[in-house]
Amino acid sequence: MAPSxxxxxxxxxxxxxxxLILLALIVIGVRLWWVxxxxxxxxxxxxxxxxxxxxxxxxxxxxxxxxxxxxxVTNRQSYEVDFYLPELVSGYxxxxxxxxxxxxxxxxxxxMLRETKEEDIVQIVDQTIIPRLEQLKVAEPYNxxxxxxHYRNNTLVPFxxxxxxxxxxxxxxxxxxxxxxxxxxxxxxxRKYVYNALAAQILGYVGAPKDINKLxxxxxxxxxxxxVQGRTNIEYFLDDELRGKPGRRILKKDAKxxxxxxKELIQxxxxxxxxxxxxxxxxxIVERTLRSVGxxxxxxxxxxxxxxxxxxxxxxxxxxxxxxxxxxxxxAAIKDADADPLTNRAISAxxxxxxYKIATSLAGxxxxxxxxxxxxxxxxxYGNTYMKCWIxxxxxxxxxxxxxxxxxxxxxxxxxxxxxAAGIDAIDKVGTTLGLGQTSGIELSGEDxxxxxxxxxxxxxxxxxxxxxxxxxxSIGQGYVLASPLQMAMIAATVANGxxxxxxxxxxxxxxxxxxxxxxxxxxxxxxxxxxxxSKEDIELVRRxxxxxxxxxxxTGARAKIPGIVVAGxxxxxxxxxxxxxxxxxxxxxxxxxxxxxIALAVLVQGAxxxxxxxxxxxxxxxxxILALDKGYDPGLKPLDPAVGNFKFVETIDFKDNNIPAxxxxxxxxxxxxxxxxxxxxxxxxxxxxxxxxxxxxxxxHRTVRATPTPQANKPxxxxxxxxxxxxxxxxxxxxxxxxxxxxxx
Length: 746
Hints:
Blueprint: H1 5-38, H2 40-50, E1 52-57, E2 64-65, E3 71-83, H3 85-96, E4 101-107, E5 113-119, H4 121-128, H5 130-135, H6 144-153, E6 159-162, H7 167-175, E7 183-193, H8 200-203, E8 206-207, E9 229-230, H9 233-237, H10 239-242, E10 247-253, E11 259-266, E12 273-276, H11 280-290, E13 296-301, E14 308-314, E15 326-327, H12 328-335, H13 357-366, E16 374-376, E17 379-382, E18 385-388, E19 399-401, H14 403-409, H15 412-422, H16 424-434, H17 455-462, H18 468-475, H19 485-497, E20 500-503, E21 507-511, E22 517-519, E23 523-527, H20 528-531, H21 536-551, E24 568-574, E25 577-578, E26 581-582, E27 585-592, E28 599-606, H22 615-628, E29 695-696, H23 702-705
Parallel strand pairs: 2-12, 15-29
Antiparallel strand pairs: 1-10, 2-3, 3-6, 3-7, 4-5, 8-9, 10-11, 12-21, 13-14, 13-28, 16-19, 17-18, 20-23, 21-22, 24-27, 25-26, 27-28
Helix pairs in contact: 3-4, 11-22, 13-15, 13-16, 14-21, 15-18
């Protein structure tokens, strides 16, 4: 009997369904094979990766050395306790359930403050971490706001709970198993400034990056330990060279999210070593000598190439205080100190006084005034103003003088007339060649360009017309003129070498990690012979005048005379008042030996009577000791504590070997009746704004303000927990807890 049409249709449908089922089974089988066999290695890696943590290992910063290889800055190990905050939160959730939350205001993309919730990281730490650390007697108070801020902004970066642990504390951590997820004792390389305060204003200091989230490799690691970055001076300007390449740590985690240990370590590559032009022995000599006064600076330069051999500023500070971080209280004490130890006076601008007469002398020579004579009767009248020479206050006059005599006597009246004969344009042109009124490009933070005033500058800034009186004032280095000790040292070097103007430099060479050495060639800024058409004889005339300052009877710098060493120099004294008290800026610039100069220098002392009485004998002591190094003299280089500044007025200074009779010394306490108010007579710029080190906030008392009960761990759940009656919440204080009911149907 033939099958009915209805039966055939049914069979077809059954076969179709069977085929679809078979096809589905085949797809599932293929998928299972693909996942379990083909992608086995992929998923095994993901499972393995979830039990591993990659930590960025900061690179080891290169050393900073002096020109002879003496190590000035190196690295040391700092042991610290770090909290990996996401790990702490994750561990809390696994052990106790939901994490406590806290509300805070966060600025949204439209700039509005909106209420946001986040895990209460402070409560988590106080409830789960601190009690265990207290048991081990290694807990310390911390700043809760700093922890919250870190959690919101730098989640990937470990929070440093304690740093610079001593040996006994490290031993406690080593002896005990903390058993705390997200807590690790790590070793971090930090800076060590070998000679403490020596060359602090040159070397600078380091700190953590300002904005970690913008670093290029921030997403390459589970946890990110950043490199420190240079904040100021050499550490800042040579940051790229000093920084090396980071390493990588791979840590293993167990099922409870605890760090079991280290699986792999890829060591970081150290940075390059930087060699400075300074000589640590000369730097030590200069800093030790400047401590005989309260506020001073000095720059010593090689006049043959422009390399800085020493640069010092008093008072000073010890950058080791900033490593790894400095407390807010200690930072405020240094930053707000009256004498301002953070400011590098060597690159700050002051009225240069009569040392500026060197530039004025060179300007007059460009106008053919080599043989010009002018008469000093005690002063000169310009308009309605009688501008005195310093000798008028002593009842005298210098009479008719030549240029070299006027340099020797530091005669204001001569240079009033000489400067006006040369003209302000000539003075400014020579000043520009010498680098006045502009930064030098030296590898330091906060260099002040000083001020080279001109008629156009006066018109734009003061809306005034230039006058002969202002040219006269400028000619003696007062009025609006401002220059730094670095600039004045480079002027002395230019005269010493016969007219070549070098750009000062502190970098001698850079040695890469593989041993490759890159030398930094000297740079020439200008040449008085080419740029200003001065002859060798013209420059020698100024050199001779500086020789007479020190070596002629009655020269204002006679106290800089050294037996057996021919010194040439120029004194300077610019009147200045601080809080109504006389606080002169006194100068001495010099070079030696005269016939074959090896060094040129500038010494500035604030709060002294005159350049010939204080800076000149200081310079003599420096020159004598520095040149003695070639004969085997050992100054006994050792670490220096910070120089403490003061505001004592210094009348004179004597060193034991100085026996110049008083009658053979001159004075140079210049006065001027046409100078701006004291507040305008010096550029006041804070050299450390925005360059703070890592400041550690003081610990707060947040744990005493609120109770932090220890949370109860979640109990393992069973099948019967499904039938348990859910609690309506924690009983309020004073209420009796409900009777325990196990099942809904009981």
